[in-house]
């Protein structure tokens, strides 16, 4: 009887760990998708395909500032071998650099939020924020095939 309870407890712990691992992956993917959704209209404004809209720019910058700080905390060692993720092992091998890029993006987004008042300032400040995306994706995300 004790043995059955012990085995059942171990299985429950394993299932809980697997759920927690997939949950953290889902959380970080949701944050990244939200940032990606904000990038589309901002990119269109940068390219002149859409009229400049200060409210949209500010909304996007708020998402960038909040999500980039959050998602860097969602890479525990236990999620290193998770399936269905584009995260490279480099994240865990150079965690300090990964976290610094996320924190820099948050800071750059906050600075841009304070400085963007019109289209000219938007086109000056926004590339500084978006550069962080490319830096992180180039080093820490699997390339699309």
UniProtKB/TrEMBL annotation:
Modification comment: Binds 1 heme group per subunit.
UniProt xrefs under InterPro entries: Cyt_c/b562 (IPR010980), Cyt_c_II (IPR002321), Cyt_c_prime (IPR012127)
A GO biological-process term: electron transport chain
Presence of keyword Signal: yes
Species of provenance: Microvirga lupini
Keyword Heme: yes
Entry GO terms, CC: periplasmic space
Signal sequence coordinates: 1-20
Binding-site residues, heme c: 133, 136-137
Molecular-function annotations in GO: electron transfer activity; heme binding; iron ion binding
Record keywords, A-Z: Electron transport, Heme, Iron, Metal-binding, Signal, Transport
Name of the protein in question: Cytochrome c556
Lineage of source species: Bacteria, Pseudomonadati, Pseudomonadota, Alphaproteobacteria, Hyphomicrobiales
Pfam families: Cytochrom_C_2
């Amino acid at each position: 009887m004790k043995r059955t309870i012990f085995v059942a407890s171990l299985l429950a712990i394993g299932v809980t760990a697997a759920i927690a691992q997939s949950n953290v992956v889902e959380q970080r993917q949701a944050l990244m998708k939200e940032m990606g959704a904000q990038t589309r209209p901002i990119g269109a404004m940068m390219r002149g395909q859409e009229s400049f809209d200060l409210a949209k720019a500010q909304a996007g910058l708020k998402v960038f500032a909040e999500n980039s700080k959050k998602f860097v905390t969602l890479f525990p060692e236990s999620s290193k071998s998770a399936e269905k993720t584009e995260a490279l092992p480099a994240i865990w091998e150079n965690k300090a650099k990964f976290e610094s890029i996320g924190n820099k993006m948050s800071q750059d987004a906050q600075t841009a939020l304070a400085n963007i008042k019109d289209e000219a300032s938007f086109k000056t400040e926004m590339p500084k924020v978006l550069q962080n995306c490319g830096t992180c994706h180039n080093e820490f995300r699997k390339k699309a095939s």
